[in-house]
Amino acid sequence: MAGGAVANTGDSLGFQHLVDPRRKWHNNRRLIALHAWIVLILITASTNGYDGSMMNGLQSLPQWKGYFNNPSNSKLGLLNAIQNIGSLAAYPFAPYISDGIGRKKAIILGAFIMCAATAIQTAAQSVGMFIGARFLIGFGLTFASNAAPMLVTEISYPSYRAPLTSTYNSLWYSGAIVAAWTTFGTFKVQNTWAWRIPSALQGLPSVLQIFMVWFMPESPRWLVSKGREDEALEILAYYHADGNRWGSFTKFKISAKASRLLTADREDPLVRYEFEEIKASIDFDKNVAANVGWKALIQTPGNRKRMRIIVAIAFFSQWSGNGLASYYLNKILDDINITSATIQLLINAILATWNLFWALLASAMVNRFGRRLMFMTSCIGMLVFFIAQTISFSLFLQHGSPDAAHSVIAFLFLFYAAYDIAFTPLIVSYTVEILPFHLRAKGFNVFNFTISLALIFNQYVNPIALGKSAENSLGATTSCIVVGSALRPFSAIFVHVVETKGLTLEETAALFDGEDAAKHIAGEANTHAHAPIDEKTTDSAESIREHSMPTVQKV
Known about the structure:
- By secondary structure, the chain is mainly alpha-helical.
- The chain is built from 28 helices and two strands.
- The chain has a two-stranded antiparallel ribbon.
- Helix 1 packs antiparallel against helix 7 (127-155), helix 4 packs antiparallel against helix 23 (437-467) and helix 27 packs antiparallel against helix 28.
- The protein is globular, with a radius of gyration of 24 Å.
C-alpha cells in the first residue's frame, strides 16, 4: 500500500563543512559560557513544570485541602485551569513584546510578574486570593515562555541548536521533580507552611532570571531585524568563532591586539555564513515573501502548512492521554484504591524523575534520529500503552484486583516514556525552527494559545469525569475517548511532518517556502560571505530541496 511522504535527508549540508568536528562545547570556554547563559533561559520551562507537579502534590496534602475547605471537583478544575486562563489574557501582547523590546527584556518582564504572583500565592488567605495569584503566574509566564525558546534557538551554536532547544521543554520535568519532592518533604509540616513553602519556591527561577538575564547576549536575529548588525556580528563572532578572545560587546576595554583578533573572528567562515544567511533570510521574509503580520500566517501555502503542523502538534501534545495524569494523578490513584497521601506523593515524585530521564535522553538524540522518526515512534508507543492502561483500569473497576491497579501504574510509566521520546522535547523546538524570523513570535504564540485551550478543557473537565468514574465508569469511557483521539496524531504526523535534521535555522524555515526561497537565501549568504557560490550554494540549496520535496515511497 502507499505510505506517507518520506523525506530523504541529504549528506551535503550548507554549514557542516564550516564546522570543526573536533570543536566540542566542553573544550571551548566560549561555548561553555554560551551554554551557561542558555541554561539560565531553559529554566523558564521549569517554572511551568513546577506548577503542574505542585498542584498535583497540593491536592494530596490534608493541610492544603483543609485550609481551602476541601475544594469540590468543579473548584479544583478552576484552581488548575486558572493559570492557563491567565496565559490566554497575555497572548495578545506576548509576540509584540518579544519582537518589540527584545527576547531578553520579555523574559525579564515575565519574571517580574511571576515573582509578584508567587508572593501573593504564598501569602494567600482565601481560595479567591490563591486563584488570583495563579492567574498572574500564567499571565507572566506567557511573556517569558514566548521569548525563552526563541532566544535559545537563535543564539545556539548550529551543531547544538536542536538538542538545546529540545531540552527547553524537557526541563519542564526538572521543575516537576523539585515540586514533587518539595511537597513530599513538607507533608509532615503540621501547619499551612506545608503548602506555602512549595508555593514560595515556585518563584526561585524567576528571581535568578531577574538578576542575571540582563548580562547575557541578545538574539543576533532580533538585533539584525532592528538594524543593529554590528552588535549581532560581534555576538556571533565571540561565541561561534574558534578563538578564545574577549568580545567588545562585553563593555570592557580591550587591547589593540585583542581588537585585531576579534576582527579575525568576525571573518571566521562559519560566522560570516551565519551572519549573511540571517540577513538574507530576514530581508527575504520582509521584502520578498511579505512574512509579516498575523495575516501572513495563513497567506501562503507554505505558511498554511506550517500552521497546520503547529496547531496539530500543540493540540495532540495535550490530547493524547497525558492530560489525565499531568494534573490529576491523585484522582487516578484514588480510583484504583491507592489513597495514602504518602504513596501518592512518592509516585508523583518518581514519575517526574522518570519523565526527565527519557526527555533529556530524547533531546540528546534529536540530531541522530531526526524529528520525523521520533514523532512516529512516540505516537505508536503512546497508543499501545494507553490502550493497555485503559484495559487495566477497566479490569480494576470490574473486579477490584490489586494486580490490575499495579498494571495501571506500570503502563502509565511506559506511556510517559513513549510520550517523552518526541512530544516533550520536540513540540517547542520543531515549532520555532520551522517558522521564519518575522513570524516566529506570532506563530509560537498560536502554538501556546492552542495548548492553553486544550489544557483548560483538560483541567476543568477531567476531574469531573474522574470523580464520576466510581459511580458509572465514566472515567473508563473518558479513557476510551482519549484512545480514539490518540490515533489522530499518528496520521497527522505521518502526512505533514517534514524532516529538518542537519539544517541551519534559516534553511529549516525555508523548507516550506519552496526551492526558490532556498536558493535565494543560500545564494545571498554565500555571495556576501565571499564563499565560492558554485560549491556552497549548490550544497545548501540541494540539501533544502531534498528536505522540502519528499519522495513518496511504496511501503
